[in-house]
Write a structure and sequence with these properties.
With about 180 residues, this protein is α+β, with helices and mostly antiparallel strands. It has one domain. The chain is about 15% helix and about 35% strand. The radius of gyration is 25 Å and the shape is elongated.
Amino acid sequence: MSNIMIRALLLTLISGLSLQGCAQPKPERLGAPIEGYSHTSAAVNRFSVNGNGGPNIGPYGGGGKQNCCAPMPVKWHPGLTVVVEWEKDTDPYAYGRWTEVMFSDAWNKRMDEHKKRYTHHRAVVPVARYERLGVVNVHFLPCNQVAVSAGLMMPGTPNYPYKFPQKMEEPATCPTS
């Protein structure tokens, strides 16, 4: 091997090693899309995960619509929780029974009264174990309970951590914590 080739090889090797020090470290947190599921007859008008908004969800609905993003750790760790806040309408189809013309002054007044019955909730929720960060899925359950996952598995797949039926009925009385 010629002297020039050896020098070129050494220069390439040294340059490569020196550039390794310039490499960006892997992030500890990433923004994960937020998706929600209502397993009850209530509508979730709005919700947030650690202050970042998720989409509105109709009764017994959800999935397929995502908002961006909840900052989440790339690696799950024991004790990982998120704060979920939401507004709920327990009678989302009430306006269908009203006799007032939709969007008239009388209808708007009635809607303002209806909105006063919306309930507001906040819960600190453990996040199910995940191997790789994916979509933050928030499940709204009877009795204002919430379950959260954040892995690559989606609801309905075999390894998804929760097996909630899409339609769950509110019990006559909810357990008190």
